[in-house]
Amino acid sequence: MTIDRRTLVRGSGILLAVLFVAGLSATLEAQEPYQKPPQAILDVLNAPQTPQVSISPQQDLMILAEPPGYATIADHAQPMLRIAGLRIDPATNGRSRPRYYTSYTLKAIPGGRETVIDLPRAMKLSLPSWSPDGNRFAFTNTLSDGIELWVGERGGQIKRIDGVALNAAYGSTMQWMPDSSTLLIQRVVSGRGAPPEEAKVPIGPNVQETSGPSGPVRTYQDLLETAHDVALFDYYATGQLALVDVESGRVNNFGDPALFQTVNVSPDGEHILIVRVRKPYSYLYTHRSFPKSVEVWNRSAEMEYSLGRMALADTIPIGGVTTEKRSYGWIPTEPATLIWAEALDGGDPQAEADYRDSILTLAAPFDGTVGELVRTENRYRGMQWLDTGEAALVTEFERDRRWNRTFLVSAGSEPRLIWDLSSQDRYNHPGNPMSRTLENGERAVLTNGDWIFLEGDGSSPEGDYPFLHRLNLRTLETERLFQTARGSYETIISPADNSGTRWITRRESPSEPPNYMIRTVGANAGTIALTAFTDPTPELRRITKQLVRYKRDDGVDLSFTLYLPPDYEEGAILPTVVWAYPREFSDAGTAGQVSGSTERFTTIRGTSQLFFVLNGYALLDNATMPVIGDPMTMNDTFVDQIVMSAEAAIDKAVDMRVTDRNRVGVAGHSYGAFMTANLLAHSDLFRAGIARSGAYNRSLTPFGFQSEQRTFWEAPDIYFSLSPFMHADQINEPILLTHGEQDNNSGTFPVQSDRMYHALAGHGATARLVTLPLESHGYAARESVEHTLYEMMSWFERFVKDAQPINPGQN
After folding, report:
1. What is the helix (H) or strand (E) element at residue 228, kind and residue range?
2. Which listed residue (660, 743, 753, 776) is catalytic?
3. Lower Cβ count inside 10 Å, N or C end of the chain?
């Protein structure tokens, strides 16, 4: 029997037709409504979330933004345009399904006085954007037919700016000018008329043609396909810049409408860096690669300087960069100095070159000589300016070794090496420089004399214990100011002032929910509580977890976090779930490093694998599956390495007298789904598998995947051997495939799961395909989340928990 899945997923409130395999043909169950997982899971799923925090530039106020519950499938069913790599809500002229908040509470720092901001009911709020002086904050409210602009005062008063419909479909929506009284916004073009209608009768075929230099074509989704798509992209993405006087509410248009990809005001507010997308567009690439013009405008919306007209970025080699100007922006500590990078090696990481990139600068009025700040031997990765403006930290990246080097760079001086280590070395990571907001609204690294401040994960063989250090840039001496104590987990969020002694932190422990505080370091060490959130799910405190370390047969160190069900009795042998995601490493030392922490407060949201613990399973969470080797050839041994890692994880859990070897399931999402299917195809370690939103046929991602640098035509045997689709005849364990029908992740087209299911059906495998209407790479609607959990629990209930021993008496 032949079944066209497209005919099965139509209809309101229906998930899909459920497909089973019987012999060599697929049979069809009656369509059913969305299902729910057990009540214990629902109780946790519906618990309130911790508010998001936004801190003012002066660190004297914070806004607690309350997130909503899950959106419904009806919310997801609203119209959505999928064009040029964007997802646009045509009703609001904004992004489809934006993250939003339902309320604001203004809290004083450090006193803790709270003001609940009086908002109209049923608002969908953005996170607030603070003015540079911290006296105001701007935010948006999304209605059913548009996006409003609102402004608040530090006292809690708010007002709507009348007559403004924001265009949030593309590029910057709003930003403060340095004067803190003016907003630069992008609004819907007035008088633009109705959206273009699609011709009822085609006027001809859609045609593409190529000729010229070669360039890899990634498997992008939501691309332009027709002339009507182009017309829609122009209609919704074209915006009108405007300046808003927030005191009077006056709105004045700024320049002509265009497709503004980037709008970036200079630190002195006198110039604006504009990136405009221009035609011709592409049917093979997203908007990020479209031709563009990069210009500087003055306050009269006149072009002062052009950084160039960039062509379609369609010839960039795998792992390479464009040969045109890139990473353009402003130096935050100077009034108006442009800075950008240019490749010196043709953008090709395979090319021999003494230097790969040049970092260039040009100051207003942009009629002088372009200056070179520094050249990097490896690919330029980023820059952070010190708040003094005297120097910057410049990081470069060596691709083949996965190596970072960071230099202190200042004009007229030789770069000074500060850090030199593997980008994957967690144990020796020096930390990330802490920044502050300058008076002009820009961000720069906080300094105190010769010192800068670094916050890091504090990774160690025992897990993560975040720290705060300070580094003397003159002597390179490092001093520890704070590190999380055993039994807790505390991260540095922001400086509480510019002294380097008072910091806003977020603290939690296995028994205490996350809360914010001010921590003073040094001679007057102490803490002041800012929030007092309570435990929304006390039942989860009965879950036990521990970090478990072990080795695989080749001596590589591995680890997983072991979660055991509430009130677990020591010695009980449990059905077990292995949840993992393979990662690539260039050496065994970094591959074996532990990540994560058992000292965190356990919360469970969405389709998390942690829900298995509430259903009576042991969970080997984030069981490490390192793939180690030379970046060009490491995938030659991908299958051997993940099988070896999986076997080591199971052996360890069995040795601990926790796991029943005959009742182990494996599961993963995205690349973890790819791993899951490979493990089932190339081993007999598991009773069943769950593969969510995966890619299974690598010939459908022929220009590379994950860290694979070779194309299909350069290494066809590898693409074949790593594709579970090519080994579907070897999968003899039950496998559940789930996929969002609107998956927009590069490489994981829904057809990947369709074709994998067809291959399994054709070979008589036991398989189930669940495709989720209106969902993307992750699943977000309440009904989809609940049903995915139902499917996961039901699948492993049948094929793992209730499985009969393969070898009676073996464990």
Report:
1. helix 227-237
2. 743
3. N
